[in-house]
Write a structure and sequence with these properties.
about 130 residues, 4-stranded antiparallel beta sheet
């Protein structure tokens, strides 16, 4: 039984930083991607940063250079360091583990129809004012 639990959200002023953490418990099996996704009040859930089993990281264009995703060697902890935060970064951030059927270098950031066996955390709220 795989469970993901996020923490680290909160309220911060624009230009500030937050660090999100996700504890991954249980055997993720062939779910080779871990990622952080964001959802606004009227938006679809979108990929922010992902990391593949081989360590390849992928970022959404609007967070490149500001956010950094990392994981421990055992893939039991997933982190998202968010710097120079903007108001548009506000939303609920979800940690996810899944299998991607995409074959390109950005495979873990592929759209939802390429994701299988998804497991999601409960989300953590980030508010940038």
């Amino acid at each position: 039984h795989v469970q993901l639990v996020e923490s680290g959200g909160g309220s911060v002023q624009a230009g500030g930083s937050l660090r999100l953490s996700c504890v991954v418990s249980g055997n993720t099996g062939n779910r080779d991607c871990l990622g952080w996704f964001r959802q606004g009040p009227r938006d679809e859930r979108e990929g922010v940063a992902t990391v593949g089993y081989d360590g390849t990281t992928t970022y959404a264009d609007d967070v490149k250079g500001r956010f950094t995703i990392s994981q421990d060697n055992d893939r039991r902890f997933l982190y998202l360091q968010m710097d120079t935060l903007k108001r548009d970064d506000s939303g609920t951030y979800y940690c996810a583990a899944y299998l991607s059927s995409a074959m390109n270098s950005r495979r873990c950031m592929a759209p939802a129809n390429f994701r299988f066996r998804e497991i999601w955390g409960q989300g953590t709220q980030v508010t940038v004012s």
